[in-house]
Amino acid sequence: MVPVSHILFFSTALFFIGVYGLLTRRNMIALLMSIELMLNSININFVVFNKYLWPGQLDGVFFSIFIIAIAAAEAAVAIAIVINLYRSHLSVDVDDAAELKY
Amino acid sequence: MTLAQIVFYLLAAFTLVMAWLSVSARQLFRSAIWLLFALVGVAGIYFWMEMEFIAAVQIVVYVGGVVVLIIFSIFLTNQSGDDMPLAGIRRRIAAALAVLFGIGFTASLVAGQSFTASTQVFDNEVSRIGHAMLDTGVGGYALPFEAVSLLLLAAMVGCIVIAMKDGGKEKINSAATAAATEQNQQ
Q1: Is A65 in Cβ contact with B69 (below 8 Å)?
Q2: Is the dihedral of CA A68, A73, A74, A76 positive or negative?
Q3: pTM for the predicted model, two decimal places
Q4: pLDDT tens across B13-56, in order?
Q5: Are the Cβ atoms of B51 and A72 closer than 8 angstroms?
Q6: What is the predicted ipTM?
Q7: Which CATH number does A4-91 carry?
Q8: Rg (Cα) of chain B, in Å, rounded?
Q9: CA angle, residues B173, B175, B176, in degrees to nearest 5
Q10: For a surface tag, which of A7, A67, A91, B130 has the fewest beta carbons within 10 Å of its beta carbon?
């Protein structure tokens, strides 16, 4: 039996790998991939807490299902925005989309 | 060490390595492929926890949907053979320090808790999940289910509207150029 905390260490590491990608990448699609990694680590946490600590309920499972659905919707909208931005700026770099900055 | 433990640590190491390659690869397309392997590894973790339904949803939605969408958008927007520029060394060091601090802080918080796994058997049959999802009573998830279905509809319409080429403007422009050429001809 693997201790619950080891699974939580794993999901922590996965989350912060996503944070590293979010801080160092400048390409919008790469940023989106980092966000997907972070959402996945959150899902693992929900499922672990549900299965090992409150096995009588199903709330964690439902939270992960809804997070997966919302992540899919978010990815679709983000990619539509990225494609539209590429049409107008010919770039998907976050530094090139700075019209609203000043 | 039992076989289940070995399988878990192997899966976790595989997922973390793939995730690291995904955030550090120079080529965007390779990064998407590493992300695909990382998501398959997470699905393997779900299978290891005997959460077959979540694992199936993970594979269908993430591996079959989101990653394919990302690869499509890479082909639509990027010169996929080009290397992405590396972030500056100061930014990378700062990000690594922030991440190491975050991992250490969170890990110390987790290690300070004593999680004792419940001995009760977790019944996560698909029929139980399905009944709870359509249940309107206490502990039912009918309302969030409907809200998510509305959200998906809104996201679909929003995607089409955002990514659609601006047809109206083009018509006006082409009409204006046609009128201009007519005038020139006269």
Answers
A1: no
A2: positive
A3: 0.87
A4: 999 999 999 999 988 899 999 999 999 999 999 999 988 999 99
A5: no
A6: 0.92
A7: 1.10.287.3510
A8: 25
A9: 65
A10: B130
